[in-house]
Specification:
The protein is of the alpha+beta class and 153 residues long. The protein is 29% helix and 31% strand. It has a domain of 94 residues. The chain is built from 4 helices and 6 strands.
Length: 153
Amino acid sequence: MAPQSGLKLTPLDYFKEVVWDDSFAQDRFFAYADIKLRDQVVFAAQRGLFRPEVGAQLFHPGATSSYKQIQFGDVNLRLTFHENDTRAIDGAQCIKVESDMDYHRDLGAHALLEVVANAVTGSLTDPKVVYQLRWIAGRRAGFPKFNPPYTVR
């Protein structure tokens, strides 16, 4: 996602403070991010790189909006904004953001094959599977090497 100014930043570049509490899980985390991230995601949605997710409040209590990356057939980033939870950090106005990866781009496939399946089995999205699928999707799309800020063992 490139910002309107032409600089190449990732969503993580906007993150100011990770929320280290009971909400931190293997399949998602919350952080406070510069409000400019929301603006860049809306801009990316206008360019067809993300799409707004309807009904985010049902699955993400306190959410005001949610956007899902749709560049790949599988394993796309979802950013859910909690715009009523704000704070200033290092001079930047920040909002709470929930970040997670979904196995499936299609809402129906995501609901049935991930949300319902995880509810039935009591499991969560597996970071190892996310890593593998994202690497494959990026290679197929001709993107630079997928290089997340973690390693999988």
